Amino acid sequence: MADLDKLSDQAKNEIALLTSIERAAVLLLLLGEEQAANIIAYLSPREVQAIGTSMVAVADLSQETVDYILDEFIMTIRGQTSLGLGTMEYVSSVFNKALGEEKAATVLGRIMPGGASSKGLEMLQWMDARSIGEMIGGEHPQVIAIVMSVLEYDVAADVLNYLPVKIRPEIVKRVANLETIHPNAMAQLEAIMKEQFHSTSAKASSFGGVKTAAKIMNFTKTEMESSIFGGLEEGDPDLALAIMDNMFTFENLSALDNKSIQTLMRSLDQDLLMTAVKGADEAVKDKFLDNMSQRAKVMFMDEMEAKGPVRITDVEEAQKQILRLARQMSDAGEIVLAGRGDDFV
């Protein structure tokens, strides 16, 4: 591997700022369309979104940085002199080959100009939250609950924003009570979705449950969370408690290993962390502080004291933001979350 100390300052700065996803994007861009398309075809919608955005973002990397990444991943493609990084034509071609024109159009619409609507119940995975909310908002709550259960948890949480306030607790309740969906019910759901985008791709599967509802709630804003649980507690307090027991809380961060905490901290704004830990219990506060150098810890404590009193609502929202980031980093494989709502061996 090239000696990092011998690189130019520009390359050092680029390498320091690159995420693991962006490094992967560089490699995909160097593989060629066919090979890159074959790899992308195995990625989930969330991963495709992330890698596609990164493929566009790395357009201006220096050749020096690209060579370093290749060495780092033990690749031997240094013969290329013109990489064509981030070109719209290249990215569009790769995504069309990997996903087909319809899927690719929706994904590309998020990361570059253009795009078109998709078809099929499974295409929900490729739609934005607003579109999904507008499409299902007038359907029966059970239909909405099933749709929410097939979405990524953070997307489902965003969809709640576009649903009527009065039905949100009912939707979360139905998600929590879902276990399996009979093929006939799925066929009926497909018929409803077909009216929207003419799908014929019915699939029977297991959906929902308390853990799914809890994971969706992990991504909701604090104000919405309080409103939904208020409605749930009125109609079914036991279910509300079961969902809360399966939610990953800020206090659960104290169970993270030191490497995961340090990785998380590198992605956090210090002011946000100060606000969050100001109202946290001692275990989670100590977890963050113990992973700082002595000098950094003293500075952090001094600045936190200087902030003075902080509103509880601000503390809760700061903790929510950190939890959302932790979930996203966990899904990307960057940290390991060990807490309620997850199974580990």
In whole angstroms, how far apart are the ends?
36 Å
Largest sheet data:
none
Taken in chain order, the helices and strands follow as: HHHHHHHHHHHHHHHHHHH
Instruction: Please bin the fraction of helical residues.
Output: 55-70%
Query: Please, how many helices?
Result: 19
- The gross shape turns out to be flat
The oligomeric state is single chain
Could you say what the CATH topology of the largest domain is called? Annexin V, domain 1
Query: What is the number of E strands?
Result: 0
Beta percentage is under 5%
CATH class of the largest domain: Mainly Alpha
Write down the Rg: 23 Å
Report on this structure:
It is built from 19 helices and no strands. The protein has 345 residues and is mainly alpha-helical. The chain folds into three domains: 4-116, no CATH class; 124-246, Annexin V, domain 1; 251-331, Orthogonal Bundle (Annexin V, domain 1), CATH 1.10.220. Residues 75-86, 113-120, 198-206 and 339-345 have low confidence and may be disordered.
